[in-house]
Design a protein that fits this description.
Helices cover 17% and strands 31% of the residues. The protein is of the alpha+beta class and 198 residues long. The protein is built from five helices and eight strands, in the order E-E-E-E-E-H-H-E-E-E-H-H-H.
Length: 198
């Protein structure tokens, strides 16, 4: 079995499932993508960043992993599949008409890493399964609405995400008029009566 290693050193991470917390929701803007044999097209993208509970590098930083999605809740969309597995139930028609991603901030999840270290699946933790360690990654929702954009939030993201976002036209519109931080508070929200996390 392939064993994954962090570039900064520290314990290895094997492919498998890890209890995690969604610490960052990132609007990435409109990016140009090229699919096999197809012409390039512009796609609106988002990313979720998860901190893996209790998995730390030698310098004490917690491991994080991110997953990138097309911003759509269409029936075949990867994010819809992941969110419904994470919720433990399908979206209602009302929810599909308008779902805001800020609900994901601070929510626990069971993420499955494949052998290349990418998030292959996101699911609802088992009943009673809770994180044992405090999160250390800045809790952030990065909005690319010029009225909400925060350079502070942008700078808190991993550098590779910053670089990718900086290629979008939305980022160019935002960067000249950054406002106060929109970072969220500590994790931990009351759960709905039906035990659906969001």
């Amino acid at each position: 079995m392939l064993v994954l290693k962090d570039n900064g050193g520290g314990p290895t991470l094997e492919a498998g499932s890890y209890l995690s917390t969604c610490v960052q929701v990132v609007e990435m803007g409109t990016l140009t993508e090229t699919f096999q044999g197809q012409d390039p097209k512009e796609v609106q993208k988002i990313a979720l960043v998860f901190e893996l509970d209790g998995e730390a590098t030698n310098d004490g930083k917690q491991y994080t992993r991110f997953v990138e999605y097309t911003a759509s809740l269409g029936s075949k969309a990867k994010i819809r599949n992941h969110l419904e597995a994470w919720r433990g139930k399908a979206f209602t028609e009302e929810e599909l008409a308008g779902f805001t991603l800020d609900k994901l901030i601070g929510q626990p999840a069971l993420v499955t890493l494949n052998e290349k270290g990418y998030i292959a699946a996101v699911a609802k933790p088992m009943k009673g399964q809770k994180a044992e360690h405090a999160i250390t990654t800045p809790i952030t929702y990065l909005s690319l609405d010029p009225k909400e954009f925060s350079k502070e939030d942008y700078m808190s993201l991993p550098e590779f995400l910053q670089d990718r976002i900086a290629t979008s036209p939305e980022w160019a519109d935002c960067i000249s008029g950054a406002v106060a931080s929109t970072a969220k508070g500590p994790a931990g929200k009351p759960q709905p009566d039906d035990d659906t996390p969001f």
